[in-house]
Amino acid sequence: GEDVEQSLFLSVREGDSSVINCTYTDSSSTYLYWYKQEPGAGLQLLTYIFSNMDMKQDQRLTVLLNKKDKHLSLRIADTQTGDSAIYFCAEIEGAQKLVFGQGTRLTINP
Amino acid sequence: DAGVIQSPRHEVTEMGQEVTLRCKPISGHDYLFWYRQTMMRGLELLIYFNNNVPIDDSGMPEDRFSAKMPNASFSTLKIQPSEPRDSAVYFCASSLVRTEAFFGQGTRLTVV
Description:
The structure holds two protein chains of two kinds.
Chain A: E1 5-6, E2 9-13, E3 18-23, E4 31-37, E5 43-50, E6 55-58, E7 61-66, E8 71-76, E9 85-93, E10 97-100, E11 104-109
Parallel strand pairs in A: 2-11
Antiparallel strand pairs in A: 1-3, 3-8, 4-5, 4-9, 6-7, 7-8, 9-10, 9-11
Chain B: E1 5-7, E2 10-13, E3 19-24, E4 31-38, E5 42-50, E6 53-56, E7 65-71, E8 74-79, E9 88-95, E10 102-103, E11 107-111
């Protein structure tokens, strides 16, 4: 099957930028997603990008997509304590099979 | 809409007992997913349905696990008999085709 890979941990200082990386393997994926999971909660969609785009910006969030390398990144500018969570990237396989990476736990240091 | 509703939120059961997890998807959504989350294995897709029909159950760990979707507004995930290694958080999610999936709050299952 296809795999979505992420590093497991990231630690940044409050106010710095966080960059979370992801690699995927299904080149036919038309949508790529970033989800956020806070402690004790389900996953919530943060943002998504169409496969024909290179970049998408939404307030403090910037998503970069490199289709050639099958690399997706999420940049959070001016990281705040409320950004502490687990971040999952996900790709759609086929019609609607949503496959997630292992999640990156983001820790904010004061 | 209240979102995807799962019940119970927490379940503690003894090894060997049957466990049934329930999910009510968002009205109008035609895809329903069951995921399992553990520290060791992350978020695993167990099975998903389209228009109440199971499409891919390759993630179901073994025959002890079964899932049904008798109608568009209800699905169950059953484990019989349960084992301690089944302890995890089980999520249900629903979506329309080629759109984001909306997740429930999850059911935390502990098998002792």
